[in-house]
Amino acid sequence: MAKGGFNAPPPILSDGAKHQSMTTLERALNWRPITPFYYGWLLLAVSALGAFVATTVAGVVFGGIQGLIFGEMGWSRSTVGITAAVGVWLSGLVAPFVGRLTDRYGPRWLMPVGTIVLGVCLYLLGGVNSIWAFFLLAVVARAISQPLLIGVVPRTMAVNFFDRRRNLALALTGIFRPFGSAINIQIITAISVEHGWRAAFRYLGYLSLLVTIPLFILVRRRPEDIGLLPDGDATPRPGANPSGLPAGRSGAGAGDSPAAQWTAKDALRTKAFWLVGFTIILSVTANSGIGFNMVPYIREQAGISIIQAAGVLSLSSFLSLANLVWAHLADKFTPRRCIVGAMASTTGIIVYLFMVNSLWSAYVFGIAWGLFAGGMDVLIAMVVAQYFGRESYGTILGALRPFEALGLGLGLYLGTAAYDLTGSYTVFFAAALVANVLAAALIMMARPPTLPRRGLPAAVDADRSS
């Protein structure tokens, strides 16, 4: 058995016992490699492949390559922006359903659906000539791939497989999207120079279809399903219930009491849930709008080439590696306090954005932006895990996705619309600064909630240290 396995207590069957009772087809479907390390790390690695192909239609990638598209097709900037925005908004409508399916059936059957739909859409995008065909395919690709390959499903899997190292696992899932975006911007730009953006989409469509295979073979729902415990612990932690959930406090990186498992209905009744949701709308609107318009703004303000501006965006995205540092800080100071610190820093960075006028100042901005703004998404996921546990994590995270999708869509559209109306990004960037300040104030009020006693109408938010 792989390292991290254990002699599981009933009703969990060992791999050997399960093997004897399976048919040949069942054995084939349930085969998995025996790894010399905890299986959860392999799942994070394979989910990175799914996130990579999904970022092909992410807003920041469309922002980085929008010049290639509207330069050839003659479309306005706001046309590309509204396409990205509608895809995000639709993903927000899909995510709550995906969250419920993830909690009920697990990610193994959902993630391959994402790569298949995405692969077909990307291939067809390579042949479009109509704005309506481009709009339809890009919207469907984003709406399906985001919750299945980037957001709800892989993060639920990370929370299910990790407890003590939950913040680290979530930080890694947070790295996959910006890291993949940075690589995809360069790949699409490089291919486009020689063969056009259509060929780039087709190649990435083929890759998406290939990624379906390892996702289906390797992904599992929970460690208990394969005879393991969260984090690869050899024995249940003191006070754990039979499923391996520890009975402890619900702080950052800590487990959740078996008697204190949040349902989505309980979570939606708390003040904390709604404060987190409105924090997401404000911060995501500001940050996504700046990220989406970073390349054209820097290119114009600093007088540099599109390749140089794309390089600034890519470097900023690569610095999502700072999420590993945020995970450590979240363990030490709690995710909520880290969000406040990140937002305060981001506000100052937006002020500096108005002063960018050269290549070196553009890189200074890109580095600072990547280090601080890049951690917001994963810190929010950590807060949700800390506050509400893992039993209904997919459903609760899915319920928060519409807030994120609304913010993403607004950011993608408002920035381009503001430029088309005023010929400048100044108004939008000023609004983004104010939005960050308001978001910091809201998250400061979002204290950890206390699970209600069964039978009481609503949860009570605890006024305790966080």
Structure, explained:
The protein is built from 19 helices and 2 strands. A two-stranded antiparallel ribbon has the order 1-2. The chain has a single domain, classed as MFS general substrate transporter like domains (Growth Hormone, Chain: A, Up-down Bundle). α3 packs antiparallel against α7 and α8 packs antiparallel against α18. It is 70% helix and 1% strand.
In short:
With 466 residues, the chain is an all-alpha fold.
Q: Can you give keywords for this protein?
A:
466 residues; mainly alpha; Growth Hormone, Chain: A; 19 helices; 2 strands; disordered N terminus
SSE topology:
Elements: H1 15-20, H2 24-30, H3 39-54, H4 59-73, H5 77-105, H6 111-125, H7 131-150, H8 152-161, H9 166-195, H10 197-218, H11 264-268, H12 271-302, H13 306-318, H14 323-333, H15 335-353, H16 359-372, H17 376-388, H18 393-422, H19 426-445, E1 449-450, E2 460-461
Antiparallel strand pairs: 1-2
Helix pairs in contact: 3-7, 3-8, 3-9, 3-10, 4-5, 4-9, 4-12, 5-7, 5-18, 6-7, 6-10, 7-8, 8-9, 8-18, 9-10, 9-13, 9-14, 9-17, 12-13, 12-17, 12-18, 12-19, 13-16, 14-15, 15-16, 15-17, 15-19
CA distance, first residue to last residue? 39 Å
Shape: globular
Text of the CATH class: Mainly Alpha
Q: In order across it, which strands form the biggest sheet?
A: 1-2
Strand content: under 5%
Number of helices: 19
Please indicate the count of domains.
1
Average pLDDT rating: 83
Give the helices and strands as they follow along the chain. Answer: HHHHHHHHHHHHHHHHHHHEE
